[in-house]
Amino acid sequence: MPAQIPFSEPPYLSSLPSPYFTPSHRKWQAAIQPFIQSHLHDRAVEWDVSGTVPPDVFTTFSQANMIIPALPAPLPVAWLKKLGIPTLLGGLPVEEFDALHGYIFNDEMVRSGLAGPGASLTTGMAFGVPLILKFGSEELKERVLPDLLTGRKRACIAITEPDAGSDVAGIVTSAVKSACGKFWVVNGSKKWYVSFSGSLSPPPSCFILLFFPVFFLFLLSFYPLSSLFPMHSFLKRKSLILKTRITNGIWSDYAAMAVRTGPPGSGAAGISLMVVPLKNHPGVTMRRLSVSGQATGGTTYIELDDVRVPVENILGEENQGMRYIMTNFNHERLAVATGTTRQARVALSAAFEYVLKREAFGKALIEQPVVRHRLAKAGALLESLTAWVEQFAYMLTKLPHDKAEALGGPTALLKAQAGMVFKECADTAVLLFGGNGFTKTGQGQLVESELWSFSSILCPPSVPQACRVLTAASTVQCFTARSWALESLVVPRMSCSTLLSGSWSRSTRRRPRCWRRREDPDCEAV
Questions:
Q1: Which runs of consecutive H residues, i.e. helices, occur in 365-434?
Q2: Looking at CB atoms within 10 Å, which of 182, 229, 246, 323 has the fewest?
Q3: Residues 199, 456, 350, CA angle at the centre, nearest 5°?
Q4: Cβ atoms within 10 A of the Cβ of 369, count?
Q5: What is the pLDDT of residue 465?
Q6: Would you tell me how many other CB atoms lie within 10 Å of the CB of residue 377?
Q7: At 481, is the secondary structure helix, strand, or coil?
Q8: How many CB atoms within 10 Å of residue 227?
Q9: What's the pLDDT score for residue 378?
Q10: From CA 388, how far away is CA 401, in angstroms rounded?
């Protein structure tokens, strides 16, 4: 067996001890790695070049129950056992599956260094189905979950829109009840949803995009959103077409879709989630789009013209969609960070292997101090990121769901950092591969493919900054809420999510008197 290339594996797979991974986790990794390798990675590059993963690959994974691990932990044990799925590959009981098992699965799905092939199989299950599991009515679950969990049908998620982008509260896609009250009639416009990926060096046009969000925020400081984008007037038209570009959409039977059920301008308070039928549904037209980066992801242009959706398809309560969407963010961001970390590892280890054998100026490149420095710099960032990702996965195995919501801001920072570290590792790989790093075939093929792997992480370049701002704002909110609780003698161990929810008495939010006054009624301190 050949020696392991430096940086090619995380420490727990490099014969090093780990405080996180149990024998159950290691057995799971040993069971799924050869399956994914033989059924996906052996031909991943070929499929990525052609732009399509054959449909029978999804069937193979579904029959082996290898799409289910894309769900957030804990798995829906009752549903899986009801469908005759008591264990996963390698004999892992479904009730023992935790966030670290999910981390291992997401890591192995991107072992080839290409995000697209794996995302073509798992994106819908990872991001769309959890919303149905958490908030769907029992009737809706009975109707759609058996086919979705067994892979007989597929789902996707449809949230973002061209006119809103990351501003989910600004979506304008409308859902209005029909006169008979039995259907929602959906109209509006949406844009694609992107999952795993990273970016190396975006082209100049990508940096130009930075101007638009900055300029948009500048305009918002003077004008309300409704005056800048008066889309609500167009929504009054009877036959407005919903134009959507969605990952996995071309294969999906359903979409977990965010729509506006409140009045125009109602913001986050007017958003609802519902399951919208896609395949063979009246008014729905879908066509495949060719895109850069995740060419195999099944990015789809969807048109919905007055699509009628049964009222029973709404998820949870009306106008509570924004809160529901955020409940899956920890899982989504950790999955993205895990896949991006593996891509960074593939890029850096490929560069290390290349400089060991590549000779220049009479000696191997690895003998050059500047090459060693660059590898060490990227390697330090990579291993630090890996430790951070594993720490988040571990915390999710220990925190109850209500307290895990407090990780929302930090996971946004983790996602942004993963993209930046991947950029550094891929930059290093292209630099050390030289001209080979720009060829679409041969030794540098994989590195070149990562060069143009655009993603929601780093393109436009404003996205990491937005994630950092979100983290800072979330941290300040948690600190302020805890300060209120402590100063008001509220239970000090109350979680941030409980404090921010407003479910505790608002009367306690008043700033108390000086602590000395509580001890001495005659204290004059303010």
A1: 369-398, 401-404, 408-433
A2: 182
A3: 25
A4: 7
A5: 64
A6: 13
A7: helix
A8: 9
A9: 96
A10: 20
* CA angle (72 as vertex; 167, 14 as ends), nearest 5: 110
Cβ atoms within 10 Å of 130's Cβ, excluding its own: 21
Measured in whole angstroms, the distance separating CA 240 from the mean position of its chain's CA atoms is: 30
Pick the closest to residue 220 from 164, 260, 174 (CA basis).
Answer: 164
The pLDDT, as a whole number, for residue 523 is: 45
Under the banding of pLDDT at 50, 70 and 90, the label for residue 252 is confident
Tokens 């608002």 — which residue? 506
| Of 97-111, 117-131, 455-469, minimum mean pLDDT range | 455-469
Determine if residue 525 is left, alpha or beta; phi over 0 gives left, psi from -120 to 50 gives alpha, anything else beta.
Answer: beta
The answer for residues whose C-beta is within 8 angstroms of residue 359's C-beta and 6 or more apart is 365
C-alpha neighbours within 13 Å on the C-beta side of residue 212: 14
- Nearest CA to 114 out of 59, 196, 193, 13 is that of 196
Give the tens place of pLDDT for each residue, 255-304.
Answer: 999 899 999 888 889 999 999 999 888 988 888 777 766 777 777 777 77
d(CA 404, CA 398): 9
Query: Which residue type is seen at 193?
Result: Y
Whether the pLDDT of residue 49 is over 50: the answer is yes
Q: Is the dihedral of CA 483, 488, 492, 494 positive or negative?
A: negative
Question: 11-113+328-456, which class in CATH?
Answer: mainly alpha
pLDDT, tens only, 238-248: 223 333 446 66
CB atoms within 10 A of CB 160: 22
CA atoms within 13 A on the CB side of 390: 17
Strand partners, 87: 93
Domain 153-325 has CATH 2.40.110.10: yes
| Residue 519 to residue 404: CA distance in whole angstroms | 37
Rg (CA), the chain: 25
What φ, ψ does residue 67 adopt, rounded to 5°? Answer: -100, -25
Predicted local confidence at residue 191, as pLDDT: 53
Give the list of residues 6+ apart from residue 508 with CB closer than 8 angstroms, or none. 484, 485, 488, 489, 490
Q: Determine the residue type at 435.
A: G
CB 379 within 8 A of CB 398: no
* Domain ranges for the chain: 11-113+328-456, 153-325, 469-519
Phi-psi region of 38 (alpha: psi -120 to 50; beta: other; left: phi over 0): alpha
Q: How far apart are CA 67 and CA 59, in angstroms?
A: 10
